[in-house]
Design a protein that fits this description.
The protein is mainly alpha-helical and 113 residues long. The protein has a domain of 74 residues: His-Me finger endonuclease fold. Helix content is 36%, strand content 9%. The chain has a two-stranded antiparallel ribbon. The radius of gyration is 17 Å and the shape is globular. The relative contact order is 0.14.
Length: 113
């Protein structure tokens, strides 16, 4: 029997977050962490199918539009009690992450690339 060799994929360079769409960011987050579905389901059970920012309610069919936002910005910090999570719809989640970029731009802290 011969030795089977696995094909090794070269890691693709990651685009800066500001150049990515919401769908790309969500896809990347899911791929990076196989346990992401686990903490997502936990957060949905704990906090319910409602956006913590805009209050929009979701049902089973539209729950894919809810994402888990890490309050401290560290997606590796996943306490079982859900204290670092809040469920945000994709629109509010994008808004939450773009606020820092907008603030930097408006205060001149960030030079245009």
């Amino acid at each position: 029997m011969g030795i089977r060799r696995r094909k090794i994929r070269k890691p693709q360079p990651k685009k800066p977050a500001r150049d990515k769409s919401v769908a790309e960011i969500v896809r990347e987050l899911k791929a990076d962490s196989p346990a992401s579905a686990n903490y997502r389901e936990q957060s949905l059970k704990i906090h319910g199918l409602i956006c913590a920012k805009c209050g929009r309610e979701f049902d089973f069919k539209s729950r894919h539009l809810l994402t888990v936002h890490h309050k401290d910005g560290n997606r590796q910090n996943n306490p079982a009690d859900g204290s670092n999570w809040e469920n945000l719809c994709v629109y509010c989640h994008e808004d939450e992450h773009s606020r820092g970029l907008l603030g930097d731009y408006l205060t001149g802290k960030r030079e245009a690339d």
